[in-house]
Amino acid sequence: MRTRPLKVALLGCGVVGSEVARIMTTHADDLAARIGAPVELAGVAVRRPSRVREGIPAELITTDATALVKRGDIDVVVEVIGGIEPARTLITTAFEYGASVVSANKALLAQDGAALHAVAEDHDADLYYEAAVAGAIPLIRPLRESLAGDKVNRVLGIVNGTTNFILDAMDSTGAGYQEALDEATALGYAEADPTADVEGFDAAAKTAILAGIAFHTRVRLDDVYREGMTEVTAADFASAKQMGCTIKLLAICERAADGASVTARVHPAMIPLSHPLASVRGAYNAVFVESDAAGQLMFYGPGAGGSPTASAVLGDLVAVCRNRLNGATGPGESAYAALPVSGMGDVVTRYHISLDVADKPGVLAQVATVFAEHGVSIDTVRQQGKDGEASLVVVTHRASDASLSGTVEALRSLDTVRGVASIMRVEGE
Amino acid sequence: MRTRPLKVALLGCGVVGSEVARIMTTHADDLAARIGAPVELAGVAVRRPSRVREGIPAELITTDATALVKRGDIDVVVEVIGGIEPARTLITTAFEYGASVVSANKALLAQDGAALHAVAEDHDADLYYEAAVAGAIPLIRPLRESLAGDKVNRVLGIVNGTTNFILDAMDSTGAGYQEALDEATALGYAEADPTADVEGFDAAAKTAILAGIAFHTRVRLDDVYREGMTEVTAADFASAKQMGCTIKLLAICERAADGASVTARVHPAMIPLSHPLASVRGAYNAVFVESDAAGQLMFYGPGAGGSPTASAVLGDLVAVCRNRLNGATGPGESAYAALPVSGMGDVVTRYHISLDVADKPGVLAQVATVFAEHGVSIDTVRQQGKDGEASLVVVTHRASDASLSGTVEALRSLDTVRGVASIMRVEGE
């Protein structure tokens, strides 16, 4: 074994960073044996140096992250700051100064992954980011290495623990969105400002990363259709139950049937209770991958948290250090397929639509005609009348989102349709 | 991209090999883009050259596997023959002649993995074998790379599709073992001679491989305790149901509580219906991994079959080819921890024991005394009497297998115990 240690600079020492530092210290011998050389924590860049950081020698702490990555003797920079800047500049500088990078930064990778990969390649360095998607669950590595000889057609997953916790609570207790959110906040599963989670921004960033790797195509955050889950109601869960379904916020990356384009989207959807994703509880994550040869695979585990995320970071750290000792680099960006990313209108799926309609003869015929005119085939209709008002629940066969939108627009203009109570996609069948 | 192709020799062209050849041909452009150089099928060694092999040029077919691996221009040998010989000699020769090896051979790796890794290392070559365990499910790579910075404490899984199909059928239809086996045979899920599957040999080989990688310790097939599932009865399933459990043939690798040793075993066990492994149906496989930092992860997918296994082989082929272009090798054997592998007596778990006893006063007291004398604490007892005979079902708290064996031996010598109807371990709690 080489005795000269590989030097690691840690940028950020919050929930994840402190766990990375702790494990690097307590498991130093194991890491050395697995890498083939010791790894040394050479510096830790933080914003608040006064905070006590157990187990990290005070002389390693610095507020000057730029100076740390510019030291010139750093082998690997571990970036767990998050956000776009200063992370982007620091990572770029790290490559320029000869280091490889391990990052957990989903927002940055979804926005600027291609540019960062290019800088890494220019400097013969590695950019690894298993921790950016679904915490501890090995997903990036299986997609870009284990399935490298296969053709992935679909990725369907729960990649945000906060929203899964809220939806699971709504499902099991009958609570409304706000009540379930309050519980999640009280228990520490939701942040004080939950926007990034509940509006699907976090899941959309992960979806862009997954789609890019799965389809060997650049998919940016802007390419991902995004719909949050703040408008999911207890009534939607009741409707889902009647269909033998539950509701999950899903990340879906799909290759079109003709293989010539791909789509990426995040939105709440009904899935059958028999689908393995339906039983993913609490803050857990799970991702289904469908490919030509392997068939259906599922990966399940904790999608967030200090320790699980640190596990993913350290797995990457070991790989990057081994590559460095080998004088090699691991797989970089693979975007050779360069498939066009279609918009939501081209997505084909099923829909569950609740309409408030006048309770009089001929309404169903009118509604059915609108669906037919837009080429959307109806699977089932259920009508419930009460005091001159009625609700009509329509479940469609597979249709394009564009056709469905046209249908809904036309329905709204019917005198007999008082309102469209909810529209939800049905997935996983 | 390099234009000179990497040359691949395929040993074996059965269900898996023919799929590997097919995908190498139909997806040649994708593989080239992902590897950075084209890959060329340079030869295919078979036993029966007369069989028509669609899509494989006749001039590539040979019956002389030894000559093929000795050609000297082969970059990667893909071994999908199975069994110990001639596979072992061919793989060793491949290394000696400068090739890296991708293998799906669980029996060989469980028996001679350490020796083969040593030869690979001597020749700076790779030995990859994702396909040897759980078919298409990425498991070897996540364990040896994604979790390389973590400490794995437990691997608990269903790694044999045939037995899971049989047990699932017994559970859902109430059929007995033989009837379910006959169905599995008729549907092609069980081989004409099902011994390797139903007696747990296949699962034991996979368990040895998983334990070795998980614990960075050499674990050979002989170190794995093995009990088949041919004696599981419909009555056992009825007992399991009463406990809110089902029965699975489980592969279990565990680090002892003190961390100083490990155990590896395969046997049927009851697991709670709430456990994710309980809902793994048909011939699917799934493996739970518990580690210090990541927590609980699960990997799920098809555990066998030509296409899924080919997917795993090709993922390895891409990785090995990339390493070759890089002039590097991937992670080799990691056995530095060298923990002792304890026997079954040291395993600590819970037990479900059915006794046929005389239906008279004092029997329960006698039985309970025997458990107490052997230090096995009882969780629940259920007694059902009928015509002077009674059955007594005892579920214990956690105890060592040695203590439990002592208890059962003592119970058999009691006059009032007519017989021990079944003993089954209870896992996954």
UniProtKB/TrEMBL annotation, chains A, B:
Residues engaged in binding NADP(+): L11, G12, C13, G14, V15, V16, G17, S18
Catalytic reaction annotation: L-homoserine + NADP(+) = L-aspartate 4-semialdehyde + NADPH + H(+); L-homoserine + NAD(+) = L-aspartate 4-semialdehyde + NADH + H(+)
Pathway: Amino-acid biosynthesis; L-methionine biosynthesis via de novo pathway; L-homoserine from L-aspartate: step 3/3; Amino-acid biosynthesis; L-threonine biosynthesis; L-threonine from L-aspartate: step 3/5
First-tier enzyme category under EC: oxidoreductase
An annotated Gene Ontology molecular function: metal ion binding
Keyword Oxidoreductase applies: yes
SUPFAM superfamilies for the chain: ACT-like, Glyceraldehyde-3-phosphate dehydrogenase-like, C-terminal domain, NAD(P)-binding Rossmann-fold domains
Domain ACT, residue spans: 352-425
Active site: K206 (proton donor)
PROSITE patterns tied to this protein: ACT, HOMOSER_DHGENASE
Source species, domain of life: Bacteria
Cofactor: a metal cation
Positions with a binding annotation for L-homoserine: E191
Positions contributing to NADPH binding: K106
EC nos: 1.1.1.3
Keyword Nucleus (UniProt): no
Pfam families: ACT, Homoserine_dh, NAD_binding_3
UniProt-listed NCBIfam families: PRK06349.1
Record-stated family: Belongs to the homoserine dehydrogenase family.
Function: Catalyzes the conversion of L-aspartate-beta-semialdehyde (L-Asa) to L-homoserine (L-Hse), the third step in the biosynthesis of threonine and methionine from aspartate.
Record-given protein name: Homoserine dehydrogenase
